[in-house]
Amino acid sequence: MPQRSRFSGKVAFVTGAASGIGRATALAFAAEGACVAVTDRAEAPLDRLRAEIETAGGEVLAIRCDVSQPEEVGGAVARTVARFGRLDCAFNNAGVENTAAPVHEIALDEWDRILDINLRGTFVCMKHEIAQMLRQGGGVVVNTSSGAGIRGVAGGASYAASKHALIGLTRSAALDYAKAHIRVNAVLPGNIETPMMDRFTDGDIQKAIDLEPVGRLGKPEEIAEAVLWMSSDLGAFVTGAAISVDGGWSL
Q1: Considering all CA atoms of the chain, what is the largest pairwise distance in Å, rounded to the nearest integer?
Q2: 3-state SS, residue 187
Q3: Catalytic positions, please?
Q4: Which residues lie closer than 8 Å to 138 by C-beta, 6 or more apart?
Q5: Would the pLDDT of 147 be above 70?
């Protein structure tokens, strides 16, 4: 499977890997020589991803993990290190969309659901990932925020709040660990051709296309390439960045 070797001898950990951006990024890491731990709540598509990477000659560990459950996150990171010996690149991509509603109509349990997965889940992942990176002397973390992390979204207050907060978390962590050789960045996708976008638009993808200045949806592989650049030595001077890959949507 390896074609280029930017990540030969490296270990990557990808959450929300069963579909969309997470899946594309896991495949890209594996194609460039990384051993990859892939996690998600959805077991069947995760198993299909594992089989695809193995068939192509890559090394992969598939772990069912709900990032809103701290004990599952800790176990997933521990299993990754037990299998591969280290953790060099972490892509915290697991997230969910909200049920569209104005602020006064958002149920508290819906607010908590979005923040528990999108924000708290990423925070818990970072705690475990960074602790391992400190032990081994360095690493890279990339978090998935969103164009909604730098602009408002009508009907999407909980989602936008979680994605705005992720940028603050990313930038603060970047300062905490800069001298420890741990870089922390965020990628901000726009409207991307994923199952989440299908759900968000109720299958009317044209609504999302119409929001894009470039006139098309982004591809998961385009986000993956940005994540790999940030995770590679080519991005060695980049930390605390929130990089939009959104076709101009957030301008």
Answers
A1: 51
A2: strand
A3: 159
A4: 180, 181, 182
A5: yes
Enumerate domains of the chain plus CATH numbers: 11-245 (3.40.50.720)
What's the confidence (pLDDT) of residue 140?
Answer: 98
Least confident of 65-69, 236-240, 247-251: 247-251
The closest alpha carbon to 161, from 106, 230, 90, belongs to: 106
Confidence bin at 3 (pLDDT 50/70/90): low
Calpha distance 88→139 (Å, rounded): 5
Q: Please give the structure tokens belonging to residue 199.
A: 């759900």
pTM > 0.85? yes
Residue 153 DSSP one-character state: -
CA 219/CA 189 separation, integer angstroms: 10
Using alpha carbons, select from 208, 209, 141, 147 the residue that is nearest to residue 178: 141
Within 10 Å of residue 236's Cβ, how many Cβ atoms? 11
Structure confidence by residue, pLDDT tens digits, 91-143 = 999 999 999 999 999 999 999 999 999 999 999 999 999 999 999 999 999 99
Q: Are 220 and 194 in contact (CB under 8 A)?
A: yes
Q: Which helix (H) or strand (E) holds 88?
A: none
Say if residue 166's pLDDT is above 70. yes
Q: What 3-state class would DSSP assign to 25?
A: helix
C-alpha distances in Å from residue 221, one per residue of 28, 87, 138, 244 = 8, 23, 26, 15
Cα angle 122-186-234, degrees, rounded to a multiple of 5: 125
* pLDDT at residue 202, as a whole number: 73
